[in-house]
From TrEMBL:
Residues 28-194 form the HpcH/HpaI aldolase/citrate lyase domain. Its cofactor is Mg(2+). GO terms for molecular function: lyase activity. Signal peptide: none annotated. Keywords: Lyase, Magnesium, Metal-binding. This is HpcH/HpaI aldolase/citrate lyase family protein. Coiled coil: none annotated. Pfam families: HpcH_HpaI. Gene3D superfamilies: Phosphoenolpyruvate-binding domains. It comes from Spongisporangium articulatum. The lineage of its organism: Bacteria, Bacillati, Actinomycetota, Actinomycetes, Kineosporiales.
Length: 338
């Protein structure tokens, strides 16, 4: 997969900036911390080296009365940032809130030199990205930054999903998209009250007249997010940017979290958000290819010789397209090992 930096054009405002060396991968987990919480800010030096991406959250989850404290906490962390192998992101408030402009100004002017990506919530169309792109260009020029800050959008409104391709293509700054299942559920008027994951009521029941003979009334919980994730992955990949699953709110249910992350991984996502340290390990495990799958991929590639034609391996047909899938597995493993 190409890195977002391959897509950079010179910025619209200020001198053309050199391409920014943002490690696009790995970003298996985007670990959220609330910068308004002094205790959490104090833990940053310990947490930062253990994650691929650390994100200071200014938006939902931060009470309206703490928005300024959160901004100040983010700046404090940015000023002391000394973990260059970890990406440093922030999630600003939504563009229709009273805080987004102040968030962007503070983040770029105060700590733009260490900030890799700005996550923009509730993006509804390319115009939202254009607005952020132009502001970033002005602020970068004002701050004298020599590398552009990238943009990550959260897909969490029906309008955003309907225009996901345009959002991905809206700016060369686009780094990726995350699914925002909680806001998306509300906006779509779904009947859930959870933050991501499945729902016990959304299931498929085997036909009592037949179907699965072993378990005639078996029920299977369905993935509420399959359609949106698949659509997001297609839009991201066709624009050379990265798709992510978003939050999983039931911190205690580590099994369901792992299942949800794995569904997203298998569908093409490169990472997910972690909201608690326990989810860091889950994301690391799920979004790193299993060594058994990597070994198998290597075996198929070797057995396929020049990569064309068809062979039988362990009773299964493999051909040119299997080789391509196996290469994805190896490339992912290699990128994570680097
Ligand atoms: C994330 O922001 C969500 O709404 O799920
Ligand atoms: Mg949200």
């Amino acid at each position: 997969m190409r890195s977002p930096k391959d897509f950079f054009r010179p910025l619209a405002v200020g001198a053309p900036a050199p391409l920014r060396e943002v490690p696009a991968n790995p970003s298996r987990m985007i670990h959220f911390f609330p910068p308004s919480n002094a205790k959490m800010v104090a833990k940053v030096p310990d947490i930062a080296p253990t994650v691929d991406v650390l994100l200071g959250n200014l938006e939902d989850g931060v009470p309206a009365t703490d928005k300024e404290a959160a901004r100040a906490g983010l700046i404090e962390v940015g000023k002391k940032w000394s973990t260059p192998d970890t990406q440093f992101w922030t999630r600003i408030n939504s563009l229709d809130s009273p805080w987004a402009l102040d968030d962007l100004q503070a983040a770029v002017l105060e700590i733009g030199d260490v900030l890799d990506v700005v996550m923009v919530p509730k993006v509804e169309g390319p115009e939202d990205i254009h607005y952020v792109d132009r502001l970033l260009a002005q602020l970068e020029a004002k701050a004298g930054l020599d590398r552009p800050i990238l943009v990550h959008a959260i897909l969490e409104t029906a309008a955003g999903v309907a225009r996901v391709e345009e959002i991905c293509a809206a700016s060369p700054r686009m780094q990726g998209l995350s699914l925002g299942p909680a806001d998306l559920a509300a906006n779509r008027r779904m009947k859930t009250t959870r933050v991501g994951g499945g729902h016990p009521g959304y299931l498929v029941r085997a036909d009592p007249e037949g179907g699965d003979l072993e378990a005639p009334r078996a029920t299977y919980q369905q993935d509420l997010w399959h359609y949106t994730i698949a659509r997001m992955v297609d839009a991201c990949v066709s624009n050379g940017i990265f798709p992510y699953y978003g939050p999983f709110g039931d911190i205690k249910d580590v099994q369901a979290c792992e299942d949800q992350f794995r569904n997203a991984f298998l569908l093409g996502c490169v990472g997910a958000w972690s909201l608690h340290p326990v989810q860091i390990g889950i994301a690391k495990k799920v979004f790193s290819p299993d060594p058994k799958d990597v070994a198998h991929a290597q075996r198929v590639i070797e057995a396929m010789g020049d990569g064309t034609g068809a062979i039988m391996l362990d009773g299964k047909m493999e051909d040119d397209a299997s080789v391509k899938q196996c290469r994805v597995m190896l490339e992912t493993a290699k990128a994570l090992a680097e």
